[in-house]
Specification:
alpha/beta, six-stranded mixed β-sheet, 19 helices, 8 strands
């Protein structure tokens, strides 16, 4: 009879805690050298007011990028951008005529917004024909399309600043500079912030955290790949990429097998022909695949949990179904789960692990995988 408690104790005694072996931060992508004029004016002025700041923003639209980097970690949210760029009170008012007039104004003076608006109605529709036939359209429909276009416009300018830059510089849209200046001075207390930092030096040295989910997600995989390479396994990701192979067949064929015969090989992030996710019937991409005699053999999912989260339950259910599916339908593949992290040391983690032993013969963590590396040669 399987001693589940003993299996858990062995697993828990070999649990790994997260190590900071990856880059945690990146530098800002702001091109500081191209903003000399903006910085010069900004550093010389010690006491901004709404008029001076809005004039500065209008004259130097790229200053928006400087302020964004000071105020935000990455960029302004879409809600903030809509508030700066558009008169939200007009967009939200119940008076359809007022919104309609605002629509016409924006379509007339902002060519990028106009293009999005017209393309939503008809990709072949010109502005001249639209204005000529405007009374033939239902106003509610046009307002709905306008609001859709506002959302798309925000998505577009968040990726391409030059679109917003053109709008800021136009005399017709001085309201942007006023709203933005008001936000910086009143909501963000810009004068006090600028007094407390050397803005250029701050932005040169600004560090932006890399997504912590991806860091934690990659950690166990990095450790496992190091174990494989330390034990003489060869990563063939580059070879597969050169040959445009993302879906593995049961056996590697020419031109891959020439230099790989009798070698211990593995690859990452690949599909295997005919192995699907039972829930949606789509091909399953595996974190790691270890070969035996040039055949994909051991199919791994790898993850790391420092804390409790819904993702654990989702993964658990998927892997149980996948393990059962592979076991019932394929004699030549073996599904393996490598999971690690101090979540498994909690009472909930222990109970989950003991329950999982009803579905898996073995669940590996990083150290258990290293101990059992000969099983995969």
């Amino acid at each position: 009879m399987v001693n589940s408690e003993k299996i858990y104790i062995d697993f828990a005694s070999k649990i790994s805690f997260f190590e900071f072996i990856q880059e945690e931060f990146r530098n800002s992508k702001l091109d500081i050298k191209s903003l000399d004029k903006e910085f010069k004016v900004l550093k010389n002025e010690k006491n901004w007011n709404i008029n001076k700041l809005s004039d500065y923003i209008k004259q130097y639209p790229k200053s928006f990028l400087i302020f964004q980097e000071v105020v935000q970690l990455l960029r302004f949210t879409n809600a903030q951008l809509i508030h700066f760029i558009f008169d939200v009170e007009k967009l939200n008012c119940i008076n359809l005529e007022a919104i309609f007039e605002y629509l016409i104004f924006n379509a007339k003076y902002d060519e990028n917004l106009r293009k999005l608006f017209l393309n939503t109605i008809d990709k072949k529709l010109s502005y001249e024909v639209f204005i000529k036939d405007i009374n033939n359209y239902d106003k509610k429909y046009l307002i709905a399309v306008f609001k859709q276009s506002v959302s798309r416009y925000i998505d577009k300018i968040s990726k391409t600043f030059s679109i917003l830059e053109k709008r800021i510089a136009k005399n017709e849209f001085t309201d942007f500079s006023i709203r933005f200046a008001n936000y910086l001075l009143n909501s963000y207390r810009l004068n006090e912030v600028l007094e407390s930092i050397n803005i250029e030096s701050f932005l040169k040295n600004k560090k932006i955290p890399i997504d912590t989910k991806s860091i934690h997600g990659n950690y166990a995989k990095i450790k496992i790949l190091r174990v494989l390479e330390k034990n003489g396994f060869i990563n063939i990701d580059n070879i597969l990429q050169k040959n445009n192979i993302s879906v593995l067949k049961y056996k590697i064929k020419e031109p891959l097998d020439t230099n790989l015969q009798d070698k211990k090989i593995f690859c990452t992030e690949k599909y295997v022909e005919n192995i699907i996710k039972p829930n949606d019937k789509k091909l399953k991409k595996f974190d790691l695949i270890v070969f035996s005699n040039l055949h994909p053999k051991f199919l791994f999912e790898i993850n790391f949990y420092s804390t409790e989260g819904t993702k654990i339950g989702i993964n658990q259910n998927e892997y149980i179904e996948l393990h059962k599916y592979i076991e019932q339908n394929f004699d030549n593949f073996e599904f393996c789960w490598i999971t690690d992290g101090n979540y498994w040391l909690t009472n909930q983690g222990k109970n989950r692990f003991l329950n999982l032993l009803n579905h898996f013969k073995t669940i590996y963590n990083i150290n258990l995988f290293a101990e059992n590396i000969d099983s995969f040669k």
